[in-house]
Amino acid sequence: MADITEVAYIWKNGELVPWAEATTHVLSHSLHYGSAVFEGIRCYKDPDSNKSFVFRLEDHMERLLRSCKIAAIAIDYTVEQLCEATVELIKANGLSACYIRPLVYRGYGVMGVDPSDAPIDVVIACWPWDTYLGADALTQGVSVGISSWRQRSNNSIPPAMKASASYMNSLLAKLEAKEHGYVEAIMLNEEGLVCEGTGENLFIVRDGVLMTPPLSDGVLEGITRDSVLCIADELEIPAGEESLTRSDLYVADEVFMTGSAAELTPIGSVDGRVVGKPGEITRRIQERFFEVVYGKAEEYVDWLTPLG
User: Fold this and answer.
1) What tens digit of pLDDT does each residue of 31-69 get?
2) DSSP result, 94-106
3) How far apart are CA 31 and CA 106, in angstroms?
4) 3-state DSSP call for residue 15?
5) Which residue, 33, 70, 171, 217, shows the most beta carbons closer than 10 Å to its own?
6) Is 197 helix (H, G, I), strand (E, B) or coil?
7) Structural domain boundaries, residue 197
8) Residue 303 resides in a domain
9) Which of 4, 101, 82 is nearest to 43 (CA)?
10) Residue 230, Cβ neighbours under 10 Å: how many?
11) Using one digit for the tens of pLDDT, what is the confidence trace for 137-177?
């Protein structure tokens, strides 16, 4: 986990604002009631061609608007406008690779649970951000533990909505994992089935078959998750959605996490049970994933928004 590196500008409500001036009031509704939705996106620079691409930008912005709809947040921007603003912002900051954080939140003006009259603010920020779970995570894997905190259910805070409020749950699980010496936590749902990490989807491999929990078990409809399933299909790796128990994690041949921040991070152990170093299927998918995001796979060109 790294500190935020400040850059020149943040896009806010249609304008580029100097970083230090992109502020909001301490009595903003979202700060008190968690009434915000957001996205996490990455822009990659191919080390060979020096070309830069934002990965699945349109898909992320479409999910952001779906989150707004579920949260009953009225937003005046289209997917196209948000994508154009993102590219404009990255260029204005002179970045060739970065993490991107769009955020839609209810601002200052009303207090109380009813958010109806709160103004809506829309911001997009970006900054340089390396590997989310540690410098060697992508190659060596990380240790994880099953959290005592359960994932929120489909009828409490919908997992299809990437909401700030959801991440209080993740925050508690993350702190608990750190206290126990783990890099990351895995949460079960209320039925005791494997759900996801604090900010990542989860995959296992057993007997050559790739499996991930279905959306109905309470997981976020991850865009990197979808990318992995598409890549597995291309590589002719048997894959599918299946409910998993914690025992399935213990006896898996390979386990890895996916997400825009975590990318594709192997898991070396679960609750102290050694899974091992990244296995063959994890490596194959990981290698292909980075070929895709660096613009080296023509089949996936529609997933990339070039900065050039």
Assistant:
1) 999 999 999 999 999 999 999 999 999 999 999 999 999
2) T-SSEEEEEEEEE
3) 9
4) strand
5) 217
6) strand
7) 137-293
8) no
9) 101
10) 16
11) 788 889 999 999 999 888 888 999 999 999 999 999 999 99
The 10 Å Cβ neighbour count of residue 49 is: 10
> Does 82 lie in the same domain as 26?
yes
Q: Helices 280-293 & 223-234, crossing angle to 10 degrees? A: 110
Secondary element (H or E) of residue 36: strand 36-38
- Give the C-alpha separation, 283 to 266, whole Å: 9
In whole angstroms, what is the distance from residue 144 CA to residue 224 CA?
20
Q: Three-state SS across 39-98?
A: CCEEEEECCCCCCEEEECHHHHHHHHHHHHHHCCCCCCCCHHHHHHHHHHHHHHCCCCCE
Average pLDDT over residues 294-305: 96
Q: Is the pTM of this model over 0.85?
A: yes
Whether the per-residue pLDDT at 6 is higher than 60: the answer is yes
Residue 231 neighbours by CB under 8 Å, 6+ apart: 285, 288, 289, 292
Claim to verify: residue 154 and residue 265 sit in the same structural domain:
yes
In this prediction, residue 255 has a pLDDT band, given cuts at 50, 70 and 90, of: very high
Pick the closest to residue 271 from 146, 176, 150 (CA basis): 146
Residues marked as catalytic: 162
Cβ contact 269:146 at 8 Å:
no
- 300: which DSSP letter? G
CA 14/CA 33 separation, integer angstroms = 25
- Average pLDDT of the chain to the nearest whole number: 95
Beta bridge partners of 16: 11
307 lies in some domain: no
In 3D, which of 180, 137, 245, 4 has the Cα closest to residue 172? 180
Q: Which helix (H) or strand (E) holds 285?
A: helix 280-293
